[in-house]
Amino acid sequence: MTIEAQVEPSDDERLTVEWYKNGRPLVLGSRINTRFDFGLISLEIMDLITEDSGFYTCRAVNNHGEAITTCALKVKGSANYKDLFNYKVNDIKLGVDDKAYD
């Protein structure tokens, strides 16, 4: 499961955007990314886990001041993708005209 939060700032080349989780700077990585595309600033969290729960804050700053918005995210569970592919494959031997299935 993925969550995406978007902010639509006014056109300003001096704009800086910072993201926080629980009041601390957000650490970006392979699952957590930010984007600035088509005039939207996005925070994307992929493959949500319960540890992603918390308060996420976006702080946008330019020469005119700052704007801050915060939202709460609560992840109640996470998908166990390992179980989806955790099965044993058995080898079978087939003759030239044998079927592998019924």
UniProtKB/TrEMBL annotation:
InterPro entries, sorted: Ig-like_dom, Ig-like_dom_sf, Ig-like_fold, Ig_I-set
Gene3D superfamilies: Immunoglobulins
Pfam families: I-set (PF07679)
Domain Ig-like, chain residue ranges per copy: 1-69
Protein name: Ig-like domain-containing protein
Source organism of the structure: Oppiella nova
